Amino acid sequence: MRRLLLLAPLLLFTVGCGVVQSSEGDATDAAREVARKAGERLYGQRPRTAEEVGRSASGIDGVEVLRVTGTSTHDGDGIDVVVRTSGSAYNGWLDLEEVAVRRCFAVRVSPKSEWREDPRDVDCLDGPPLTFAPPPGPPRLPYEELHAKLPRVPEGGRVDEAEVRRMLAALDLHPAIRTEVKADGGRVGVLLSVKGNGFDAQDCLLARVGPGASEVWVPPRIQRMPGEGGCTVDNALDPKPPPH
Fold first, then answer.
1. Residue 135's pLDDT is what?
2. Low-confidence ranges of the chain (pLDDT < 70)
3. Would you list the domain boundaries of the chain?
4. Alpha-carbon distance 19 to 94, whole Å?
């Protein structure tokens, strides 16, 4: 009995140390899961630069970006992002004290990456997290300029598609603005648009030149959503009815 009593404190100490280690391991697993979910958010087949990937990662809750290596997701092995995350777990055996840790992981972003790929454990780097400038906004679509320069054709006149194209060329548009011109039924339709992100409403301008009328307008937002067909040159020639 005396031997058992002498062993009891040692057993309690051993069990206690095991619980502390297990709680820290659970906290590390929680931090790793944050990094894994960041990898899921960054996963995709669309080509992106290191700046784009780093900016996207820095916007994820609970993630600090410490280093970005590589130039493009589609060059070589892609891009590695070293992130710092936090995790916590409760020690439920001895007390209710919360064990919190900060850990660092490397997340690979490449079309060769696997879905839910495990991030690699890495040493944390010294210094503050990286910051990224906001992405450049889309170029302004020249509503006023287009409205002022659009050819006016009198009733009974003939619309000259070539003249419309020359007018667009003279506007000296930003390279990111896509133009499309189409003639149909004695009228000419014009589309000016910038590339959307596939989720939000796209920016575009429509114009139509016809005998007796030249118009410029922005389609309603709902028509500019992906798949709605509002930002097309056909919608310039034959506008969709406004939403109710």
1. 82
2. 1-21, 92-95, 244
3. 2-122, 143-237
4. 8
